[in-house]
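Worked Example 4.2. Read the sequence first, then its structure tokens.
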Amino acid sequence: MKVLEYEKLEKATENFSKSRLIGKGSHGCVYKGILEDGKIIAIKKQSLGLQKIQDYSKLENEVSILSSLSENSFIVNFLGTSNNNSVKNETFLIIEYLPNGTLHEMLHAKIVPPTWPKRIQVAIQLAKAIQFLHQTKPSIVHRDIKSTNVLFDSNWNAKLADLGLALRLKNDCEDDDTNSPSHRSNSVTRPAGTIGYLDPSYTKPSKLSTKNDIFSFGVLLLEIMSSRKVIDVSKSPVSIVDWATTLIKEGRDLEICDKRMHVPWYMEGTIKNMLRIATRCVSTKKITRPSIQEIVMEMENVIIEPTKYPLWNILRSLTLLKRKRKRCRKDWNITTTTVTKTCAQHEGKVEMDMSRGKLLIREILADKAMQ
């Protein structure tokens, strides 16, 4: 773990100037820092409220979790820490700088909404981020999966951030250091999360499970596809889960989609598959919710290929049509007044009153129209 001198941190952030503030939450503030070598970093500082009561547990927990993980393309990259020796136990978290804002801003604040392939790509990247956490030994439950905790790098790839509430499952912890902040006993750590995304079955510490994250991911999927806020008191139902699941049960899946974006016919199947996954994730029965491994597998098998090659069926149909025409053309008897087409695959004859020149022009125009 790299430890950066606090004085260098102050210089990098212009003494934590407001002009360098790039993010703010209930647990802390994030500042943009520029080091002497020009490298840009992000520095997370504990919120004033928690500083006053000297509660550094959430930031220490995030440091413990992130520093234990190997680098992953879908999780914010941990760079190091810093300590202010003049203030007891004050720790700063240093992570990679992600310049393109949050998923919440992309869905709700931008004038131009994201395209459907982009939404699918983001959903898959987040599923893989959660898979990475759940497959870690012991398993890590994020507990606060939401659109404001999804950031975009310079290439607009989505990364899951803010692991301040994350916990390792106690049942997986055997030989690890149980004094680590991230190893707090599941039996005493109170349920936490964000209203709207929080699993309603997570009512007491003993209910902690990876399926809590699955519920939150399902809510996020619905938000990604609809661009509707997860809790909106101006609408009925207020909850995005109640609203979307009702429409899906009635077979009105596509009414969930963002009204600002037209749904191309070749994306309908992919979007419906995505919504069905979301419905299973937000099931009231935890046992029926899929694991993140199942979700990633289904997305890779059913969703990625149609999204990656949305025009495949069109091109395939055109190729077959051209082959069929070529076979039929061999049996055509063309005169200046009548063209008689006979094809082994079809019965009967079609009389066409046109010259050879007219036929060729019509074929060219038809091909252009299909293209």
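Now turn to a second chain, presented in exactly the same format:
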Amino acid sequence: MVKDFYVLISKLTSSVNLFERYRSLLSTTDKLSSSFSPVRMASGEGAVPEQNDKEILLYLHNHSFYSQKLLFVLNERGIKFKTVFINIAAGDQYKNSFLDINPRGEVPVIKDGETIVVDSAKIIYYLEEQYKTHKTLIPTAEGAEIIERHNHFHTVIHDLPADVITIGSFYHPEVVRDPKLPFILPVRKHMRNVTEKIPAKLKDIASKEAKYAEVLNQKATKIENDLEIMKNKEEFLKVLDTVDGVLQEVEEQLVKNEGTEKWLVSDNFTLADIDLAILLERLYVLGLEQRFWQNRPNITKYFNRMKQRDSFKKSIPSAFFHIKTLLEGIPNFLLSLM
């Protein structure tokens, strides 16, 4: 019955600490708005959250690529948190109640005491700085060679455009094989239709709400530019070629690790492993695994090993969650076709 339902429905040098990359993100203005700070206090100026047993509030959607990455970080580091589900399929991220938290209308976001932090990369740095008693994912004590290797893989994997890869594959079904939940055919059509309508929706909100206008108008322009790449097969294939180049580097590194218990760059599990794991998971559910690692046996072994890790399993939506969200999304799917 379940089966029937599925059918129906740039190198960094060793002297540059990865922290500095994140610190520069936090200390400069956000790329989308000169007036929007990615870290702010809900009340009071300059307050620093105390390290205690309180739980972080995490705003997320479980199918969001960057939400999954942050979930993985929190689970791996053992940091306590509670979740607030933002139904991005229904457009909840563009309601004023959420735009007041993140004017870009994006997840994930965390609220830690009185501090609000947006953008997964900035959140990860914030957590490293504020939760030092928990396990670290940055190999700062492992020597220059490992730091350099880690920073390189983190950067090249993190900089891949996950949204372009995801939505672009919906426009070019010939490049995928066997897409899996949640990205089965009805969902692919729905997400494609919704994405095309987002720029107009953002501009409409911006015309009515001056305090969000700058950020939302710039985001609308970015999505319009991304859509041009997604729809143009030649441009989209260039993006996939970039992914292919990164995964070839990964395969070559894993070949060097053969015969050891190393993860991607170290004996210890690092942020680069989280970057890689969430990328591989996304490519897998999109139906792109045969394209990218059918002939890369070490990536296959690595991914199979990763899927046994408890923190990974906790961070990836279950089949039950997929079915539940598909059922709840049917009205939105029908509306998207109108």
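Notes for the reader: Confidence is low (pLDDT under 50) at residues 1-19, 25-37, 41-52, 333-338. The CA atoms of residues 167 and 192 lie 6 Å apart.
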